[in-house]
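Example record for the data management plan.
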Amino acid sequence: MNDSRAGAISDWILDSGASRHIVSDDRLLIDSKQYNDKISLADNKKLVLTKVGRARLFVTARGKQRHIELSDVYYAPSLALNPISYGKLEQLEYALDGREVVRRSDGHVAFKVTMRNSVLVVETSSAIKTAEVIFAALEEKATADVSPDVQEATLVNFHQRFGHMSYDTIEKIAKNPGSGLRITDYRRLTCIMCAQSKQTKNSQRKKITGAQSPIDRVGGVICCNLKGPLTPANRLRNRYLVNLVDHKSVLLPHLPG
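Corresponding structural encoding:
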């Protein structure tokens, strides 16, 4: 995979050990500027970086060609290949799924890789048809291809907006392309309201006698407990609940307030 320009190296590899995107040919950089730094390699050698800029790759994704732009790409003249930092892609919510690098949030395929000599090589192309060009910048969250009618929110936010619907149900709905929902964060945080509603109470005694509550004095018959504020309020806007216990008749009336 050689560039149309003589001597330009365009082999890109997906490297889980690389902390930065690096090119070995400064002609692959766009809007580059001078840079001076050194990084340590696995064999304790130092790699000199002299420039930094952006790089554009022509890649293949599910039979279609597109170009992808990487930012913060460094130039190291002593390298033979161009490593793409897998760690940097993970920070942008991309992950390797089989032989494809996909976005976790919606499964969008960024590019395809192949195994060559135990190394994952990005499938690139030196030529691309204009009608098939798709711009998919990894440094953005790719919101340009999202319909303005699509609602974006975290899983927890949808859970609260949909009357505390279960996380599984919301994810199932969002997977339908016609649902108009896009989940931006799949973390399942504990919902305090749901946790409180699932609390269990000790069962009441079937028979209450004077041994547990004397009836020969004021206050020995009636016990009460106040619960609240409750969210959401009921249709009468009540947010508190008073529980009264009559130990003689074993009645438990509930009074909203």
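Summary line stored alongside the record: DSSP finds four helices and 15 strands in the chain.
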